[in-house]
Amino acid sequence: MKNKKNENFSEWFTEITQEAELCDLRSEIKGMVVNMPWAVMTMKKMYAIYEAELERRGHRPALFPALIPESLLNKESEHVEGFVANVLWVTHGGDKKLEEKYALRPTSETIIYKMYSLWIQGLKDLPLKIYQSCQVWRYETSATRPFIRGREFWWIEAHDAFATREQAEQQVRDDMEMTELIMHQQFGIPFMFFQRPQWDKFPGAENTYAADCLMPDGKIVQQPSTHMLGQKFSKAFDIKFMDENGKLQYAWQTCYGPCIWRIYASIIAQHGDDKGLIMPFALAPVQIIIVPIFKKENETVVRDKSYKIKQMIMQAGFRVDVDFSEQTPGSKFYKWEMKGVPIRIEIGEKEANSGILTLARRDSSTKEQVEESKLIAKITDLQETIRKNLVSKADDYFISKFFNASTKEELKEQLKKGGFVRIPFCSIDVDGKECADEVKAETVADVRGVPFDSNEKPKYGERCIHCGKPAKVYVYAGRQY
Ligand SMILES: [Zn+2]
Asked: How confident is the model at residue 453 (pLDDT cuts 50, 70, 90)?
């Protein structure tokens, strides 16, 4: 690639989305790209993994309309205030102006909770846990980037209702556990869950907990967030149930939104290198590519062996392909390295006759020889080895990006290294907003919040980095996408 990931990440990212054919930017709709097969095949696998885990944990899928009547969107005041500037509206049916305009869903709380008010009557209807996999639209006014920020993107939204606050709080922890199991352990993307400051929570939520990840340039990107909605929406939408004493109670609610499209951006950015993508084994559209190396005189023996090996791997349940195109072996290597295929098997005349195959790993750039009879066992082992290697490389980077500062000068200095800088701060309630705004204006750092469930407390005498009042919390700050 022309651009180097560690020198000019931003250009590297754009280049890789084009070179690996992940999206086409020529749709002529600003902020909306065409997602190409190589990307979509992986995103569908990501969806499948997430959906299976949600269902294992008691969620059920549903599909709600993409259009939300304006009156419904307006029902929860903080919610509509938070979203209205980014709503795309449908105003006409044919050439007739609609009596009421419809929002193209920017998120689906309002339409889903209207239905919940009809579905939830008694304790027998709770908990209610439903998710939908869909795309949403937000009229972004800041610069858009494929997979990172767009006016159209693909996500999952899970919406849960419970009889008690405790059950809702447990669901928030459950959402975090799911994020750990999937995004970190399977996709290799480390994160830290922060309780967002009150001025930066999801519009309409009591509290927002968001997983912050890092890009290779040290900037923060927000991944799944889970929201404790409390009873704010149940009161606005009249979601009530009869409790055991015959009294009407409002439901307690949570919602969780892993954005598959954006997590895919983290996968590209985290694992890729200057030769292209490096796909986690479980997400690769093609997991093993066979590259035959032959001349006219030995083509048949190499071809037969290649197809035989392909058949064997396919029957073992892996996704495998043989590249019999006209290109040279060198350009085939280049192509499949760019696409991030985890394992390459080279088969020439020597391999065809000896039954000893050469395996090249994309994640470690290592090669090893394996007997044909042990090939399937080897691949089976490698899928776990590759997963662990990607997770541990990503973790090493992530862990190295935590710093401390106790003055604004120190903060500015530490921010140059990228990542998270821990600072003593007055408050993450609304009264801390002014300090956060000032810190941002002076240093470009966003205050991300306090780590979930953390018991780190500033020592006696430590003071807010801006106003100098006694520090109540340590917050983490950094530059964000
Ligand atoms: Zn302060």
From this structure: confident
